[in-house]
Amino acid sequence: MNTAELIDRSLKKLEGSFRGIDDIALFNQKKVLDAFIENRIALRHFSPTTGYGYDDTARDTLNKLFACVFGAEDAIVSPMIASGTHALTVAMFGLLRPHQTLLFATGTPYDTLNDVIFGEGIGSLKDFGIDCVTVPLDCSGAPDYTAIARACDKLDPSVVMIQRSRGYEMRPALSVAQIEEISGIARRNGKTPFVLVDNCYGEFTDTTEPTVCADAVVGSLIKNPGGGIAPTGGYICGTKKAIAAIEGRLTSPSIGREVGSYAGDYRPFYQGLFLAPHTVAQSIKTAMLFSEVFSSLGYETMPKTGESYNDIICSVKFGDKDKLISFCRAVQSVSPIDSFALPEPWDMPGYNDQVIMAAGAFVQGASIELSCDAPIRPPFIAYLQGGLTFEHGRLALEKCLNEIFNK
């Protein structure tokens, strides 16, 4: 069977799943459109500001718009947030105080958070006397609800943190229902910890967001909610109490969100959010097709056909370093930007292992654009995500398959 026939056969199997993704995209597009109309978004909201940014209506309205879309009481949306890791760091330092406990309820924190939490002599949570306790996932890669309950009862944590996406693990991303269950366990018996959710890669994959149960939900604008248009930035949506505690760590406790200008054009942040439901659907369809095709070739993939997509990522286990590197290089070679570049494993800031990354993106490092990355460690799993258009995803798949067949 040639490459085209293999892809066509896989597309036939995915027709029902694709219809389901289109239904979610339609629901979320209406939600976003309604929020734009309700907040009376106008051309004046795109205007840049300088200096302190007092009375920056574009900034303040963008906060309100995100809160409305995510069903939250309040929000911080800022180009000053450099990444998802930065947004999570701001949130953790805003919600925690010295000698309190952070309970990480979903296994080992993502690699870039390791030094933020456990580092020594660098201004980490540990340096401020904050303990972090991790509850491992169960043998299936799902939250261990019994162990989470025991830890909450024993430690009485001030913040319970949940990582929705898989990170660099071969486990399913969490659904909103699973996040709700963890939140319910954390708040049993009258306890009132802040529930903090790392929502990176999960936005608009469902018709609801974790704000239905969490105090603060965090993400990056160069992932899902930026729609492939936002050039930088991050968001934190949540309760008024949580956002009030966090905003002073974005700037300083004395000024919070009262200052903060942006001399660039705000339009990409608004336009990116508007495009996000459609762009996320394109990314999920791309991930589904990669998963189905590579599964049919005998590779272990996740999620499998018929399983829910609670993030935009497709994991492919290669079990071989050279195959992993070849796959990432094939993705890079069919990228619109820097297609001629040859990705190499390198000591990427914030990671404990060397990482290889294919990211021929219009926005540097934007993983809502078709990209692929992996730590260079057994069992050599590639994490593919993004795709501004499904058509580009299909072309990239053809290139990856041709690389494999030729070798």
Please describe what this structure looks like.
With 407 residues, the chain is of the alpha/beta class. The protein has 11 helices and 12 strands. It has helices at 3-13, 15-38, 57-69, 84-95, 114-118, 145-155, 176-186, 240-250, 267-296, 321-333, 390-406, and strands at residues 74-78, 101-104, 131-134, 159-163, 194-198, 216-220, 234-238, 300-302, 313-317, 355-358, 371-375, 381-385. The strands form 2 sheets. A 7-stranded mixed β-sheet has the order 1-7-6-5-4-2-3, with helices on both faces. Strands 8-9-12-11-10 form a 5-stranded antiparallel β-sheet, with helices on one face. Helix 2 crosses helix 3, helix 6 packs parallel to helix 7 and helix 9 runs parallel beside helix 11 (390-406). It starts with a helix and ends with a helix. The mean pLDDT is 95.
Q: What's the main sheet like?
A: 7 strands, mixed
What share of residues are in beta strands?
A: 5-15%
* Helix percentage range: 25-40%
Structural class: alpha/beta
Oligomeric description of these chains: single chain
H-E order: HHHEHEHEHEHEEEHHEEHEEEH
**Poorly predicted runs of 5 or more residues:** none
Topology:
Blueprint: H1 3-13, H2 15-38, H3 57-69, E1 74-78, H4 84-95, E2 101-104, H5 114-118, E3 131-134, H6 145-155, E4 159-163, H7 176-186, E5 194-198, E6 216-220, E7 234-238, H8 240-250, H9 267-296, E8 300-302, E9 313-317, H10 321-333, E10 355-358, E11 371-375, E12 381-385, H11 390-406
Parallel strand pairs: 2-3, 2-4, 4-5, 5-6
Antiparallel strand pairs: 1-7, 6-7, 8-9, 9-12, 10-11, 11-12
Helix pairs in contact: 2-3, 2-9, 4-8, 6-7, 9-11, 10-11
